[in-house]
Design brief:
Order of helices and strands: HEEEEEEEEHEEEEHEHEHEEEEHEEEEE
Helix content: 10-25%
Strand content: 25-35%
Bound molecules: adenosine monophosphate, magnesium ion
Number of helices: 6
Shape: elongated
Radius of gyration: 31 Å
């Protein structure tokens, strides 16, 4: 089978899925980073009443228009209103109401004088400063008004969105359900962290590096499983876990070795192969299939390769499923600060750090089996097939990751 370009592989993958439609109601406490499944309209004005933005006196601006330190305006204080209370009195000419931040502005008043501009008087107050009509006056509905469309369906909810929903008096939000992924790592040599490590074995890092990344992109992991290199066992596990998931992602066993059993496992399942092998390094031997309407994405077991595959292939897939634009691949032009000398027959992705138009390739190995030098990286430098040496200051494209 021909190797596909990354663009072609992505196109074929995206053809396999349609945006999710199902919504669920969740607590506001869980709503950050979820996608709103309906337009939200204001059911009332916010704030629901005109209120004072500071501690001071509610007055008629006309009464204090020529007030100065030398010639203060003298007013009778008729009431005191704290936040959460409603005053009984109306401000009339020559009177004032002592008012605290957040309290409703009494009828008749059209301005608030800061208490610092008065003698803090109780029965009577001297005002030393004039304030214009509607000075220091927070209007009812200045945040939003009943009927305003506050958020559109498809919005990614941030902390402010959640706060606005709460300000409407809501406890729940209607959001798109999460994408469900079953994550399965394969390999006879793989041992779960926490177990003792026999000779010849290694700990499973893919389950964790891929799993936490998927979760941070809003995915619900319906399974976190590990299975040995036996096609029948792998097939049975995929069949079982595919039931509750939108897609199954596996790592390991996709190359051409004797123990690369993913091909046989998919045959056993009678899965329909969509592609095998993408012309990128690392992560070339990626296998993609469809089984009972579910997508099965089999990635290399090499930890860096699997991580690159997740960023380049799975992330755009999640963007389409959820409509989240922030999950689309983001490329930036950068000037490479430390050069790159290796040639490659296929497009190569080299881990790096990007900041303000400059990129630095990470110290240490870029080998597909090496994970530690990916720590702290925030991009992949994309080196197109056939590129010769790139000197210091050479212009490259980077793909942002994370
Ligand atoms: P494979 O893709 O199965 O040929 O594995 C390629 C390399 O990645 C081998 O050195 C494996 O031991 C290693 N590997 C496979 N799966 C994992 C995993 N889940 N965590 C860490 N390394 C792995
Ligand atoms: Mg293997």
């Amino acid at each position: 089978m021909e190797k596909l370009s990354l663009d072609e592989a992505t196109k074929r993958l995206l053809e396999q899925v349609e945006p999710l439609q199902e919504a669920e109601e969740i607590s506001l406490w869980d709503a950050k980073n979820r996608i709103l499944a309906e337009d939200v309209f204001a059911t009332r004005n916010q704030p629901p009443f005109a209120r004072s933005p500071l501690d001071g006196y509610a007055v008629q601006s006309e009464d204090i228009k020529s007030a100065t330190k030398e010639a203060p305006a003298r007013l009778t204080v008729i009431e005191e209103v704290a936040a959460g209370r409603v005053g009984q009195k109306q401000v009339t000419a020559g009177t004032a109401v002592r008012i605290m931040t957040g309290a409703p502005i009494p009828k008749g008043a059209d301005a608030i004088v800061r208490q610092e501009d008065t003698d803090y008087g109780e029965g009577r107050v001297c005002v030393y400063q004039s304030v214009g009509h509607y000075g220091n006056y927070c209007f009812e509905g200045e945040d939003y008004r009943a009927g305003d469309c506050l958020m559109k369906k498809g919005s990614l909810l941030g902390a402010a969105h959640v706060g606005v929903l709460a300000s409407l008096g809501l406890k729940k939000a209607l959001v798109l359900r999460k994408v469900r992924v079953a994550l399965i790592t394969t390999g006879d040599e793989i041992v779960l962290p926490g177990e003792t490590l026999p000779e010849g074995k290694i700990y499973d890092s893919n389950l964790f590096s891929l799993g936490v990344q998927l979760q941070s992109w809003g995915v619900e992991l319906t399974a976190k499983r590990r299975v040995g290199d036996e096609a029948g066992l792998v097939a049975a596990m995929i069949a079982k876990e595919a039931k509750d998931a939108d897609m199954v992602i596996t790592t390991g066993g996709v190359s051409v070795g004797k123990k690369d059993i993913m091909h046989d496992a998919l045959k056993l399942l009678d899965g329909q192969r969509i592609f095998w092998r993408v012309a990128i390094k690392p992560g070339m031997p990626t296998l993609c299939a469809r089984y009972k309407g579910k997508l099965i994405l089999c990635l290399s077991g090499n930890p860096y390769a699997a991580a690159v595959n997740l960023e380049l292939l799975v992330r755009p897939l999640l963007a389409k499923l959820t409509g989240r634009k922030d999950l689309c691949l983001r490329r930036k032009r950068a000037s490479l600060q430390n050069g790159y000398h290796k040639k490659s027959a296929v497009t190569r992705y080299v881990r790096a750090y990007y900041r303000e138009g400059e990129a630095w390739i990470a110290n240490g190995s870029n080998d597909s089996g090496v994970l530690s030098s990916l720590c702290g990286c925030n991009c992949l430098v994309e080196i197109p097939a056939g590129t010769g040496q790139i000197g210091q200051g050479g212009q490259v494209w980077v793909v942002m990751i994370g």
